[in-house]
Design brief:
Elements lengths: L9 E4 L11 H12 L7 H5 L6 H10 L1 H11 L5 H19 L9 H10 L3 E4 L5 H13 L21 H10 L7 E5 L2 H10 L2 E5 L10 H5 L3 H18 L3 E3 L5 H14 L1
Parallel strand pairs: 1-2, 1-3, 3-4, 4-5
């Protein structure tokens, strides 16, 4: 039987790249496609760079990059306008929903790790840059694979998305947790890490399964071990630079990290 933690109350997980959708592939591919439909080819890296934001903010961030802004001007003859963000977002939602069934598989080991968190006495929350409508698809697939957090806070539930702390603060409120320092935020993006730090929570970042590495399980298996290690190390460095207290390769490792945080909190 697992020993109950004394200084932590809840752990709040991100979704794509952290608990489902290995490599956070669904949103990245859809962002590429909606720009392609407007005659602008963006790279996978450009599509991934703002990952973790609300999807409308994500689109705006892509458009604001100098390379994409130049491509847009070349293709359309004028700079992008605010209405273009709205138009791209309107195309994003149905396309994203259409592929979520395929890209919402729970990452290996997540249900077991979450069960261990519960045995340690923790409440399980979750936050996402997806809207409530999109999460209805994702959460249904996840439940069928034995992953169901105690609460889900979506991008359209709060005033500001990441890196603002609103998602995490709302998750804590719904879980009945008043002290954010008793919450551990688990995310795979720099803005997710920043959101955790801005909320005053412990923040753990995920490398191998997440957006910063950005590969499916099959694609990872095709890498040479040294290449995989390099990519994970690079992702960890980027996430630590954003403020992560700890980095792990996957949520499978979270129980031991939570024990470490609990011991560290006891000393502080």
């Amino acid at each position: 039987m697992s020993e109950k933690l004394q200084h932590l109350t809840a752990v709040v997980f991100d979704w794509a790249g952290t608990t489902v959708d290995h490599g956070s592939r669904a949103p990245a591919l859809v962002f590429q496609e909606i720009f392609r439909r407007r005659g602008v080819e963006i790279t996978l890296q450009q599509a991934r760079e703002p990952m973790g934001m609300s999807k409308c903010d994500h689109i705006a961030a892509i458009l604001k990059t100098p390379e994409v802004a130049n491509l847009w001007r070349q293709r359309h003859g004028v700079p992008w306008q605010e209405r273009d963000i709205d138009d791209l977002y309107e195309h994003f939602l149905p396309l994203q929903k259409s592929v979520l069934q395929e890209y919402s598989q729970v990452i290996a080991g997540v249900p077991e790790a979450v069960a261990e968190c519960r045995r340690m006495g923790l409440i399980i929350g979750s936050t996402t840059g997806y809207t409530r409508t999109l999460m209805e698809v994702v959460s249904k697939v996840a439940r069928q694979q034995n992953y169901a957090p105690d609460g889900i806070v979506c991008a359209d539930d709060v005033a500001q998305g990441r890196p603002a702390p609103d998602l995490l603060m709302e998750a804590a409120r719904r879980l009945g947790v008043s002290r954010l320092e008793e919450v551990v935020n688990v995310d795979d993006t720099p803005v997710g890490v920043e959101a955790g730090r801005n909320a005053g929570s412990w923040t753990v970042s995920v490398t191998r399964t997440g957006n910063c590495v950005g590969l499916s399980h099959a694609e990872l298996d095709a890498l040479q071990p040294e290449e995989l290690r390099l990519r994970c190390d690079q992702a960890a460095a980027r996430l630590r630079a954003a403020g992560a207290h700890f980095t792990i390769e996957s949520v499978v490792e979270i129980p031991q990290v939570l024990r470490d945080i609990d011991q560290r909190a006891a000393r502080e």
